[in-house]
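Supplementary material to the annual report.
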Amino acid sequence: MKLEQSRREFIRNAALAAAVTAMHRDSNTAHAAVELPDSLTWSKAPCRFCGTGCGVMVGVENKKVVAVQGDPESPVNRGLLCAKGYHAGAALYGDDRLTHPMIRKDGKLQKVSWDEAINAVADAVIANPTEFAIYGSGQWTIPEGYVSMKFLKGGLNSNHIDPNARLCMASAATGFITTFGVDEPSGCYDDLDECDTVITWGNNWAEMHPVLFSRFIDRKQAAGSTFPKMLYVDLATRWTRSSEFADHYIAFTPQTDLAIANCICYQLIENDTYDKAFVDANTRFKANDGSDIGIEEYRAFLQDYTPEAVSKLSGVSEGHLKLLASLFADPNRKIVSLWCMGMNQHTRGTWINNLVYNVHLLAGKIGKPGSTPFSLTGQPSACGTCREVGTFAHGLPGGRLVANPEHRAECENVWNTPVGAINETPGYHTMAMFKAFNEGALKSMWVQVSNPGQSIPNLNNNMNNAKKGFLVVSDIYPTATTVLADIVLPSAMWVEKNGIFGNSERRTQQWFRVVSPPGEARDDVWQVLAVARRMYEKGFEGMKDRDGNFLLAIRDDDGNEIEAWDWEVFKKSNVDRQLFNEYRQLTVKKHKDLPPYDVLTEERGLRWPVIEHSDGTWVETKRRFVEGEDPYVKAGTGVQFYGAQAGDDRAIIWARPYEAPPEVPDDEYPFWLCTGRVLEHWHTGTMTGRIPQLHNAMPRAYVEMHPADASALDAKAGDPIRIASRRGSITLPLFNGRAKPQRGAIFVPFFDETKLINEVTLDEYCPISKEPDYKKCAVRVEKVRA
Amino acid sequence: MPISSLIVSVPLPDHAPMAAKAVNAIKGAHVELVEANRLIVLTETSDRSEDQQIWDAIGNIDHVGKIELVYHNFEDSGETSR
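Predicted assembly:
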């Protein structure tokens, strides 16, 4: 179908009107509502990609998504999209979508019926129920994660479930919990509208979270040099597009962020410029071993972190270290600290999270509009599905823990499982899970919405060379993981199914299915229900509740069970609604209250805790722990860190030391290797790689290095460079068009399935969060000569 | 024919006229509105593979700092593939 002239004109006008609306999103000027083409059916959905949670309007015509627009009503992005969100609709239509189930027979994946595939998965689980694991995702919808977690923890007496969010934000979660007693940010995106200073800690938000970047940078550019000048400080190990907009680019030696944060604290204490009233009222101090200390012991601990000493260690000038402290010392500055993988993928990821909280707590820059430490997330529901639903190996919904008998009993009551159905021992975390799978301790694994065959560090050791178990993979496209699978199940994607995501700022966003999945592809929720039902029908006791009924029964509003395991019934039903309303029972009264499903259908997301007021309205919470905003804060307290494990409403300032990384450059491997993402691609590139514009713009991985290092190798752009570590090697073309690492460091993106940089990376991880460090290991580089 | 709208930002309003002139010189791109340091650009291309070429060309214009994307209609652009 080619567009007719009149229709093209109409779409042009719609596109123009949308841009005008988006451009004036921050002004008070009234503008006419955007008139969208009325031959299309438009529906709201959160973007499928990163954790920002932008709103997208999805236009459907003839049962196909044909247009997307940044949702002008979304408070997150106010009509704007980045390159990935802009192509979110096109990501549905790659020509190699998985469209039928397959089972490996005679060494080859062969098409089978859904019935045969479901039966085979059920048999594999029944054969070894406690030696079976589910590896999930921050891209699971909330109902997907919830049903998988309930299936495994409620039905198999096992906790071997963990999401790939272990690889991206587990350190943020353990950082929150160790400092505040509860997980997830107290601040929100509104703080970017009210701050005057942003400090990024190893975060290239211009490319990874561009809509949020614009939200601040537009204000900064509009403010110009008005006093007090708005500032952007980029603390980083590599010059990026974000750095181009920074007032101060502060490069540091990898891992020394620990010392830099302590140096800021040292100066605040020694210069007596910390916020005494805030610290006295709201914090207490702990030594690294967890024992209580006083401020004088904390002061003594900090003596190793003078600007002079830290400058030598980190490579940051004393002037810059003093500048950082002076910003936090200024009582009038409103500072947002932002970070993502740069801090979290760290062998001391929990500690560096604690230390940035230390800085903000000492400065009293938390719980006030425009002042907050804020961890960004890389996946659309890492917060909603992993941290809130409790799909980690140790977790249960609403911040509960499997190790806590009261928490287990609360879940068993809601699920109506037999008493003791939930195992008290945490299951395998991600890194342990793949080790167990490859060594045979786990007999089978079901991978859902993730691609560990490309994303697990040190692949040669952890994944590709040693797979002994039975592997089931549910996905939308062929991946580096599906090629290893014994069974492949084709999944529905994004708006081909109902869904709910929870973004970085505690915002829960719902959407409806607007198109059908291709071929025989089906929802992940259905896949779990069908396997569970087959196990129930085979007499597996774990799939029975206390009364002998099906554990994962889905009931209509009248309480009648519907046969949701039947695809024809499932697709006519809204199973998400039933699952979410069951799940939310486990969030209320836990300070993470979620509203009923039907409320979410009418909103562009709500930030929890969401409380029903006496007039029947459901009201969200912008900032946690803040009187007047958070309904759980007692009147008269101002700020109340009510999650404190000691019950004293105080956040903890930790004396966390600098610790050297486990592998540093030496004579044999003299360069630092850092891995990460690029603007065009999202994670392992399985979706963005199917979009020609994005693929053509960045078709293959590359290596970035400092021009002086390239010159020393006699290498120019395009020359093949061999990168070798103690674990593996890879050859990539040199590319220096976008960012610039420091001397002695290189950067490689991980999106390219044909060039697996994770065969080179190190698999050491933070001992608290178990999150591996993809950001630093030692490598040798050499130009490959013909 | 894919039709898209973009917001292009330059650091200062003084940079906008030159940037607008350069954008208008790119086949398939047209500046519809200039306001302070921001330009609204409409693009119309024969297929979606041309979109990225236009963005790249805009991104290479002096002083262009950000390209934000708002609307994307791709109804007759065919399927995607690697």
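Residues 28-32 of chain A have pLDDT under 50 and may be disordered.
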